[in-house]
Amino acid sequence: MIRRCQANDAGRMYFIINEAAKAYDGVIAADCYHQPYMPEEELEREMKRVTFYGWEANGEMVGVMGIEPIRDVTLIRHSYVLPEYQNQGIGNILLNHIKGLTTTSRLLVGTWADARWAITFYQKNGFKLLPDKDKLLADYWDIPPHQIETSVVMGIEINNN
What confidence tens digit (pLDDT) does each residue in 9-43 have? Predict the structure, then answer.
């Protein structure tokens, strides 16, 4: 079941994000990986500007995905599923839900260039790697220069008329 996340979900979201982000250990640049991957304070800030949706299984949230409209695009933010629930279609369900909520014509997602599993997931869902990723990351995200260097942006056109 998909539902919009509330402030009282922060603890569970923190757990999901940081458990799933352990996959980055040894994959992304060492200076970009730390535990917790997303500290509580950062999650609290993100929850003020990003609308999160969660997937529940057996009455417990096991996956999250956020959406953030910025000017003429919508960003997918912080998409994570607990490792033991991955490859069960939860990411696809959340992504399709986000696509249906998108009010702009373009949906973008940024991820680490070395997170091949994430890139493959989005490609299977119609996203294309975009050649102007440095400009897009600078325009729509607030991330450090090294993260821009080691990331990609993928996009898809949305028609929700």
Answer: 999 999 999 999 999 999 999 888 999 999 999 99
Q: Specify the DSSP class assigned to residue 84.
A: G
- Phi-psi label, residue 113: left if phi above 0, alpha if psi -120 to 50, beta otherwise: alpha
Q: Which domain holds residue 69?
A: 2-157
Q: Number of structural domains, the chain? A: 1
Q: How far apart are CA 45 and CA 62, in angstroms?
A: 21
CATH of the domain at 147: 3.40.630.30
CB–CB of 76/67 below 8 Å? yes
Tell if the pTM clears 0.70, that is, is over it.
Answer: yes
